Amino acid sequence: MAKRNATLRDVAALVGVHLSTVSRALDPRTRHLITAELAERIRAAAGQLEYRPNAMAYSLRTRRSRSIGALIPDITNPIFPPILRGLEDVLAPLHYVTLIVNTDNDPDQAAEAVARLRSRGVDGLVIACAMRHDPMLAQLLADHLPIVVVNRTSDLPGLGGVIHDEAHGMAALVAHLVGLGHRRIAHIAGPGALSTGAGRLAAFRAELARHAVAEAPGTIVQAARFSEQEGERCAELLLAAGRPPTAIVAGNDLLALGGLQALRRHGLRCPDDVSITGYNDMAFVERRAPPLTTGRIATYAAGRRAARLILQQIEGAAPAPVERLAVELIVRGSTGPARPRRQ
Amino acid sequence: MAKRNATLRDVAALVGVHLSTVSRALDPRTRHLITAELAERIRAAAGQLEYRPNAMAYSLRTRRSRSIGALIPDITNPIFPPILRGLEDVLAPLHYVTLIVNTDNDPDQAAEAVARLRSRGVDGLVIACAMRHDPMLAQLLADHLPIVVVNRTSDLPGLGGVIHDEAHGMAALVAHLVGLGHRRIAHIAGPGALSTGAGRLAAFRAELARHAVAEAPGTIVQAARFSEQEGERCAELLLAAGRPPTAIVAGNDLLALGGLQALRRHGLRCPDDVSITGYNDMAFVERRAPPLTTGRIATYAAGRRAARLILQQIEGAAPAPVERLAVELIVRGSTGPARPRRQ
DNA sequence: TTGTAAGCGTTATCAG
DNA sequence: CTGATAACGCTTACAA
Lengths: 343, 343
What we know:
6-stranded parallel β-sheet, elongated, DNA-binding, alpha/beta, homodimer, 4-stranded parallel β-sheet
């Protein structure tokens, strides 16, 4: 069907040498073994035939595919494209290709995907869908396949990767609200099974304590997923209770967006009646009404870093402990001073 | 380093048969050649050894990689993730993998990417970065590599793929504005080198004519890219002129968003002073202030359709003419009735 | 019904 | 320095 590509054999025939000589002449690491003049003739012939090495044959022979797998929950979630772009921007120049798979946060789909990627001989895996309890990761680790987590991590020891500094980001958010005079601060916590959800919740509690702000009962509600729908549901719970909070810290931007909907339905204005904060600073969240105050995670940088880390492991380095990237407080219109409220 | 996978040879040794027998027993198409009982023993042994076929060896032997390349301008642009998701949702169940490459709309990067993908033996290419004049596509077509365009097309004849019905979408948008009483309608046109930019401009003109609305000079301004920045620049041009339009039809949502900025800077309110429309209905554009009236393109469906089309070509079918998916008019808050203006 | 053997395009280990 | 040759793991005529 498609035009057959030229092979080493074709080039060898054209130049009149053995194909192994062509292989050597074309490989920078072995070119020095060949007479300069001959190497040049070979290069010319290869160019003329538009010779392109067959990656499958290369991989079969060397057990190196120059491909890495990327497991993400859903490419349609705006925080992942920048991570993927970061990955590709460091991997592509090194002639690696990234195999992206969506897992929908489903362990079965993830396992399926890993099996398929392994059968394709990926040199390593970048995992953006780690669960705190993640048997699949344990298996991967045991099999000594290079893996790196990004964005989320697992409780598993010995894992390498790069995530965001939840403690730091949450501290900044809470300090910001406390500074605005808020004392009744609620939290819509992300899924407890994820390091992001759990980490932010823990940090939220720690920060309230540090500021000597009481944690009222019923002031923390747990979302089942990082979604607008869940944010709306959880905010409803918070608002249904007797005295609504003056500020809501949402586990991420999506939850905050949902919270905003609930606020609107209750006739509460943001930030006049209730301040709300997000987390992640996903694309276009600055253009909403009101623009969201949030913690900006360094998604693109995380992608680049993850790529570097996986390459190191592929080169044989042991996984370095999970790194944490700084989270930047972005103050926008969804937060304002606390105003006295009728009891 | 990583645990070596079991091979046909390993399974064959365990069962005590020849590896070719194992190969047949494991392939649904040839399983009937094997005694049912033996086939079962082989399947059991394969399971026990966690046998996974080596995709590289398979590809080398069969010249089928079960991989397709996807060329997109930038994964970070919100219209592409749903397309990619659509692709994957039909390809993954068929055990295909998608190699995604960002080209940044740069023909050199695209050519580079295609070369690398071909060297990896992709069975076909889905191209979301087609230019109206696109020598690379011509080359691909000449080489009989299965290709399909998506979202944008080329002027090249004989190309298959799926795009959006620009004429239809633009007609709905213009009719909507005319219906609101607008007569001074401007257009921020997308890049003329792209089928989307050119197609929407042509349709815009055709629709004005059909409604017998005069096209005032200086009322169409050309953007160099589909970006907010360009939208802002172009809107400035429109507003700098003597009598500003009462409505602006932007070539896509990004251009509209930029236009909105310019409006704000000029102290013009939307939609009270000037209505504005986008195109694409990219994610979260409904939550802006004002929420954008736009033409919704069927990105996910386009991705799914493109996958089907490329599979057909891989199976040997000739490329079918480029299809057009319906564009849905989404009326939101950024458009309102035209109000009389001081001259 | 099963075994034999060739070959896909490379790289790597031998000789010469 | 260059050539011959053996894998890498798989599919597929062809033999038995």
